[in-house]
Amino acid sequence: MGKETWRFINSGKQSPAFNMALDEALLYWHSQNQIPPTIRFYGWNPATLSVGYFQNIEKEVNLEAVKKYGLGFVRRPTGGRGVLHDQELTYSVIVSEEHPEMPKTVTEAYRVISEGVLEGFRELGLEAYFAIPRTEKEKQSVKNPRSSVCFDAPSWYELVVEGRKVAGSAQTRQKGVILQHGSILLDLDEDMLFDLFLYKNDRMRERLQRNFKQKAVAINQLSSQKVNIEEAVLAFKKGFEKGLNINLQPYELTQEEMRFVGDLAEKKYASDEWNYKR
């Protein structure tokens, strides 16, 4: 049997609202059988803080700092914690829950999709592996994270290099379709990241930031050869083809599709009602 062909969209740097709207549009089109399974790579303009669907903005996010740094802000349709999208490659995978290669459980489907990310790191010469919480304490920390920062701790099947998390991903299932998107760090401004959240006191912030250094790392902190975004796109495109055993066919959105996404971005993901009212 030949390899299945999926669609590949490299949409470059887009606004926060457009990025989330395009992920939702792809999920909708796939649910209507209008498009095949799709993998998308993208960036952010401006750099953006995204928060998980269930996060409480008032209690967790320092909106003054978001404004001070000139960052975009958006709520994702997926769960998880706060992510600073800056010097990174972001990916999304859209595939039916009924796809023969997709396990029924969220955790196992997450592992299958993340094989593509794993192989991408290997293409860059990095020995990545899946984190599997083993002790009861580790399992509890996945269920009850101590911090609002996504990269604070690896959860089930998160990607790890030298014991530190290198990619953070989140998944949602709607209309019979899996949407998994994630953040692959090339570089990271840790101080800026930690300025974006609220803490009970300075001591707690210092402790969390100190712990964070031991738990998370960006690609260019690990590699003597600096990786740029073009090299990352090539490596992770190959990685997804290998990890999911597929061919990726490049695709450009039509004007009609762009209008649909722009409309959804404006009405939903650029609105205060969506981003702030939870």
Automatic annotation (TrEMBL):
<keyword id="KW-0436">Ligase</keyword>
<comment type="subunit">
    <text>Monomer.</text>
</comment>
<comment type="similarity">
    <text>Belongs to the octanoyltransferase LipM family.</text>
</comment>
<feature type="domain" description="BPL/LPL catalytic">
    <location>
        <begin position="33"/>
        <end position="248"/>
    </location>
</feature>
<feature type="active site" description="Acyl-thioester intermediate">
    <location>
        <position position="150"/>
    </location>
</feature>
<dbReference type="InterPro" id="IPR045864">
    <property type="entry name" value="aa-tRNA-synth_II/BPL/LPL"/>
</dbReference>
<dbReference type="InterPro" id="IPR024898">
    <property type="entry name" value="LipM"/>
</dbReference>
<feature type="site" description="Lowers pKa of active site Cys">
    <location>
        <position position="165"/>
    </location>
</feature>
<keyword id="KW-0808">Transferase</keyword>
<keyword id="KW-0012">Acyltransferase</keyword>
<dbReference type="InterPro" id="IPR050664">
    <property type="entry name" value="Octanoyltrans_LipM/LipL"/>
</dbReference>
<dbReference type="Pfam" id="PF21948">
    <property type="entry name" value="LplA-B_cat"/>
</dbReference>
<dbReference type="GO" id="GO:0016874">
    <property type="term" value="F:ligase activity"/>
</dbReference>
<protein>
    <recommendedName>
        <fullName>Octanoyltransferase LipM</fullName>
        <ecNumber>2.3.1.181</ecNumber>
    </recommendedName>
</protein>
<dbReference type="InterPro" id="IPR004143">
    <property type="entry name" value="BPL_LPL_catalytic"/>
</dbReference>
<comment type="pathway">
    <text>Protein modification; protein lipoylation via endogenous pathway; protein N(6)-(lipoyl)lysine from octanoyl-[acyl-carrier-protein].</text>
</comment>
<comment type="function">
    <text>Catalyzes the transfer of endogenously produced octanoic acid from octanoyl-acyl-carrier-protein onto the lipoyl domain of GcvH, an intermediate carrier during protein lipoylation.</text>
</comment>
